[in-house]
Amino acid sequence: MPDQESKLFVVPTIIPPIMKITRFLALALCVGVFSACEKDEDEVANNLHHQWKVYSTKTVKRGGSEACAYQTKPSDMDFTPGENCQYDDVYDFTNTRDLLITNGNNKCDNNEPATVNKSYERKDNKLIIAGQEYTIVRLTKDTLILDYCLPLAPITGFTNAKLGMKLVRNK
């Protein structure tokens, strides 16, 4: 009888280590799958190197130096845009140094060239395009929101304006 009891107790001591190993492997697999998905999303979100079509532009804030200090929120650019000569323009960031802007059929003036090449550089959440600094407010796989500060003519009654620009990925 003692032999049967010892055999009964041997089985339960073997199962828990197997269950622990199985649980550990299942957990490791889940962590690997979810972290891989998260990494892919981050890589897509941080990838500027696509063609982006201008969706909307907006003066977010006018004023003095506080206008330039204003931090544009993505919700500032959530509106249905009206007609604008820039809304068919495409910004091509596929080259890592040169931005190619293709001006669409809706020209802002009669002398507007079909394409414009500008140098650019990205530094964290900043883009310097032909010497003008832009802040990347949001960058996802389908949306790019930029803002920049622009000096205004004294006749406007303001010295600066913060401008927002929303671009969508050109498919």
Keywords:
alpha+beta; about 30% helix; eight-stranded antiparallel barrel; 2 helices; 2 domains; Lipocalin-like domain-containing protein; about 170 residues
Give the SSE map:
Elements: H1 2-45, E1 51-63, H2 65-69, E2 90-92, E3 98-102, E4 115-123, E5 126-129, E6 132-139, E7 143-151, E8 160-169
Antiparallel strand pairs: 1-2, 1-8, 2-3, 3-4, 4-5, 5-6, 6-7, 7-8
Structural features, described:
The protein has helices at residues 2-45, 65-69; strands spanning 51-63, 90-92, 98-102, 115-123, 126-129, 132-139, 143-151, 160-169. The chain is of the alpha+beta class and 171 residues long. The protein has two domains: 1-45; 51-169, no CATH class. The model is unreliable at 6-12 and 30-45 (pLDDT under 50).
In short:
The chain folds into 2 domains: 1-45; 51-169, no CATH class.
Structural class: alpha+beta
Residue share in β-strands: 35-45%
Mean pLDDT: 81
The radius of gyration over CA amounts to: 28 Å
Number of strands: 8
> Number of helical segments?
2
Strand order of the largest sheet: 1-2-3-4-5-6-7-8
| Number of separate domains | 2
- The end-to-end span amounts to 77 Å
Q: What is the ordering of alpha helices and beta strands?
A: HEHEEEEEEE
> Shape, please?
globular
The largest pleated sheet is described as: 8 strands, antiparallel, barrel
State the low-pLDDT regions, or none: 6-12, 30-45
Organism: Nibribacter koreensis
Protein name: Lipocalin-like domain-containing protein
